[in-house]
Amino acid sequence: MNSSRRTFIKKSSFAATAALLPWQKLFSQTFNNLDAEMYLIRDKVGVYKNRGGTIGWLIDQEGLAVVDTQFPDAAKDLIQRIQEKQQRPIDLLINTHHHGDHSSGNIAFKGIAKKVVAHENSKANQQRVAEERGKEAEQLYPDTTFSESWSQKLGSEVVTINYFGAAHTNGDSVIHFENANVAHLGDLLFNRRFPYIDRSAGANIENWIEVLGKIRKTYDKDTIFICGHAGEGHDITVTRKDLKAKQKFLKALLKYTKKGIKQGKTIAELSKAEVIPGAEEWQGRGMERVITAAYGELTENK
What we know:
This protein has about 300 residues and is α/β, with parallel strands linked by helices. It is built from eight helices and 13 strands. The chain has helices spanning about 20-30, 70-85, 100-105, 120-135, 205-220, 240-260, 265-270, 285-300; strands at about 40, 45-50, 55-60, 65, 90-95, 115-120, 145, 150-155, 155-165, 175, 180-190, 225-230, 235-240. The relative contact order is 0.10. Residues about 1-35 have low confidence and may be disordered.
């Protein structure tokens, strides 16, 4: 990996390490010196950024967990960095959902991860897409699935996974490290960036709004959320207010598209807008993509 890809990002949140216990302080300082975009968020939970959806991790003296895997090259780099700290198998590998930028790196964990966990729909989607693309040999599928919730104690941490319903896909999970109070949202939240709405995998915008509401009610004001992607200038760690902002965006998207449909406008005409009224914070590429998804959802039963 070249040096530009391993540029370290210092996080100001580590300024409070003086308040940590001695072993926690050493742990934090050690990761602060890594030449990579890998850093602690709280306690023993952190993130790894490279190429693809944000990876979350737990490194405990008695257990290791990884959430999402990006692509094989990034996954191998992450594994190497973790094993420099803890020479033991990965106890839990969890996928927030099936998309390739979150699960293609699973294969790098073959023979290393004791257990691979995902929602049952996520596994079904991963298998379906792999078969359609002739990529079955490149997959490491979940060996443990659930329908509503799943939990396991890992060292001093408890990892709980919840499914709140169809949203970005029909298999998106929220992974909560309970003691650290850090929750990985995967692609349930694109922070100020137009999301991918995968209708081929059961995405539903109207229900996505409800799912975000359920998440806001389930976790408290102190929860730090990790999102799958963020727009330029925005962080991949967010709070409940950012979930509310995403709800506002999705509501505005449906309202704008519904109004355009009533006016007889085409997807191309609706996509010419520079911003979606009421959701001006969402910028960049992807306007036509979200309009197309909303248009399909609003007209499919008509």
